[in-house]
Specification:
The chain is 56% helix and 7% strand. It is an alpha/beta fold and 434 residues long.
Length: 434
């Protein structure tokens, strides 16, 4: 069933607005957590105590009206009974080792586990199947858990430990949370809203989005984009498991479904850097690798509006022949003798050059003028592509760079034409000062 994207969008935007008023400097994280909930992926928050990690997790569950909430601060002394429920004495009398899970993690829809890497091996083993397969092994029974979303937090990353590494890999979404930075945030901190958050969503919203995401296709260009990113990372010795790469594709499909599309686009990939890193210090490098591939993919996906590669290939084709064509024109002017066959060959080449360069320059000029109209309200244009994007303004620069590249190609075509034919292209005049 396809989700009612318009109503869902309004509710998500309302929820984001209300959370942003309560949790300052957390705008990107809030959007990322919504994407995690709707895609069914777990999130790990790394940061010091007192950064409102558990409070944010609780607030998000309130928006779903979830009474089935579980949170706990783990220590190395925490027992499985505290997380999964006490052993049923009645069942024990019948030689059945079964836990009473009502009110504990296996019965929760939303959960927050603080200091998760301090859990002991008995807890870790049970968490692995809950986090990945949403299954809890209760005695001899394998129970499906209703868990929609689990947020874990830690003040520090796990040490080299095989069990902890397996647990860490279950958290696709990773985010480093820091203390507030700006003066305006400290000023607003003393006047935060305190009224209860309304329940804007139901569990059916999540199920509808997840069902729609299964129908979303990932085009070949996006698959190749992911593979190129994987190669770039491996060249820098960053390695991700196949499970994580698969889940990244699933998050992209969920983003497309939220935006009412049945195909993934470049705009569904914007949060990918937060799905890649193992330590926060790697994020700047990974973001740089991602942004390079993102810009290339954006260039590919805007081919209908501004087919730069087409114009670049055509310009290069005639630049390679520029010297020969110019020499032929000079020989004609001075009356130099040439073979008839060679002269006819160059005459046809010259006419083809004239036609193709004129058409390309006029077409590119029209494309650039249309592009300028789009640039007048690029923020709205980008939000139409993905309304979960944080600070769409920073992506407007990428569009400006594409226009500048198009203007450079137009100048090359005009200069080439001027060199070969000694005049300007009629109808290709363009104001480069805009």
């Amino acid at each position: 069933m396809k989700p009612k994207t318009t109503q869902l969008q309004r509710n998500i935007e309302s929820a984001i607005h209300q959370l942003e008023r309560r949790f300052l400097e957390r705008s990107e994280l809030i959007r990322l957590l919504f994407l995690g909930i709707l895609s069914g992926e777990n999130a790990l928050l790394i940061g010091p105590p007192g950064t409102a990690k558990s409070q944010l997790a609780r607030a998000i569950s309130d928006l779903f009206g979830s009474a089935h909430w579980f949170d706990y601060l783990l220590t190395r002394f925490t027992t499985p009974d505290e997380i999964f429920g006490p052993v049923s004495l009645q069942q024990l009398k019948q030689d059945q080792y079964v836990r009473k899970t009502a009110g504990y993690l296996p019965a929760a829809q939303f959960a927050f586990l603080d200091e998760i890497f301090k859990a002991n091996s008995a807890i870790l083993n049970a968490l692995l199947s809950i986090l990945n397969e949403r299954v809890y092994f209760n005695g001899r029974e394998k129970e499906q858990v209703p868990l929609l979303f689990l947020i874990a937090a830690s003040n520090e990353l796990p040490d080299e430990n095989e069990q902890l590494a397996a647990l860490y890999d279950r958290f696709l979404i990773r985010y480093e949370v820091s203390y507030l930075n700006t003066a305006s945030s400290y000023e607003s901190m003393f006047n935060l809203p305190t009224e209860p958050l309304p329940a804007l969503f139901s569990l059916y919203d999540v199920k509808d989005v997840q069902a729609a995401a299964k129908q979303v296709t990932v085009p070949e260009t996006l698959v190749y984009f992911l593979y190129q990113l994987k190669q770039d990372m491996e060249e820098r010795e960053f390695v991700l498991s196949d499970r994580r790469w698969s889940k990244i594709g699933h998050v992209w499909r969920t983003s497309a479904a939220i935006n009412g599309r049945d195909t993934v686009t470049v705009w569904d990939t914007v949060y990918t850097p937060h799905l890649l890193w193992d330590v926060p210090e790697d994020l700047p490098v990974l973001r740089q690798l991602f942004e390079k591939r993102f810009t290339e993919l954006l260039k590919t996906e805007t081919q209908s509006e501004l087919p730069l590669r087409h114009y670049e290939q055509l310009a290069q084709k005639w630049l390679d022949k520029e010297s020969d064509l110019h020499a032929f024109q000079f020989k004609k002017e001075v009356g130099a003798k040439m073979g008839k066959e060679q002269a006819e060959q160059f005459r046809l080449m010259l006419e083809t050059c004239r036609t193709e360069v004129e058409e390309a320059a006029r077409s590119l000029k029209a494309k650039l003028i249309g592009w300028q109209q789009t640039e007048k309200d690029l923020v709205a244009f980008i939000r139409e592509k993905n309304y979960l994007i944080y600070q769409p303004e920073k992506y407007t620069v990428k569009y400006a760079h594409l226009r500048i590249e198009g203007e450079r190609l137009l100048q090359i075509l005009q200069g080439l034409y001027r060199t070969v034919f000694d005049r300007d292209i009629a109808g290709a005049e363009y104001d480069y000062t805009l």
